[in-house]
Amino acid sequence: MEGQAAPLFYSFPLAKLQEIVVEQGEKPYRARQLFEWVYKKRVFDPDLMTDVSKSYRERLKGAFSFDLPEVETREESADGTVKFLLRMKDGALVEAVLMRYDYGNVACVSSEVGCSMGCAFCASGLIKKTRNLSAGEMVGECLLIDQYLRPNLERLSHVVVMGTGEPFDNYDNVMDFIRIINDDHAMEIGARHITVSTCGILDKIRRYGKEGLQINLAVSLHASNEETRRLLMPIARGYKMEELIAACRDYVEESGRRITFEYILIDGLNDSDENAYELAKLLKGILCYVNLIPLNPVKEKPFKRSKRAYRFRDILNARGIKCTVRKEFGTDIDAACGQLRAKYQAKEAK
Ligand code: SAH
After folding, report:
1. Which atom of ligand 1 lies at the shortest distance from residue 297's CA?
2. CATH number of the domain bearing residue 108
């Protein structure tokens, strides 16, 4: 490890941390103690961890980094949405968003630096993926948002992995991240309050269904037929829609959980009555829920928002498909995925 920076403390689930502290010659309960200092008391400096021996505190400082991402800029919307542009240790810029629903405070977390999925309507893909985020960097996104809420005696209650990046392209780190934020000795975000969104990577959809956690899955479908999906999402060239739907059925069967399909309504492209009938047929018999998303227009992209969202919803509902139109947040602050970062980087480059 010589010459390498110490790993982020926040990257280790409790079980893994227990192994590490034992290797360091400490008792396993130390790991829980450290978790509580960091995630409960929010003490990020080993020197202040008073029930840990002085000599171990010194070793901790060498063994782990306790750095949090830095807040590069923050934009606050009139509706309470807050968009954070975070700078990681290596300089990488990452977005995380706080949204306030009536049921709780939701963090929308990025899973990668940039994204290589290339969806036609999305601003994240404007900057290609340069690397995965570590579990600890994703935990850092949540810690910063929770720290922002604390002075008002609020807390982060829900997490969606729907920011920049394809979480199933960074599967192991995302799963470690989930285990950490879900842990009772850490941030205690309930599994049912955690959702991962994928553009549709089949083997990972099946694997996710076998994790044995009560976490949620959302699949970005955005089309009612193969042709339209291929037009919008390059991933569709690799996996047929029929195979995707089969994987989703397997997921539901394996996990026993309802699956969410996300469907961005785009004017004249996927929002006709026929598209709604087609979609209803495609999803028939699957324990699912459809989230209709009003397109967040991106300057660099040609697509327009559909005006048919409620009609589309009504058709699906009439055919027995549970469906809602997603509430919008922060349109006054470029809250669409990747927009703040793209804007900021363009400005920096000038
Ligand atoms: N890569 C994952 C997660 C990140 S995108 C995925 O594809 O699901 C999270 C959600 O935001 C996806 O449903 C994505 O299609 C949607 N999204 C991307 N750009 C958008 C835009 N301009 N307007 C509305 N939703 C958008």
Report:
1. 22
2. 3.20.20.70
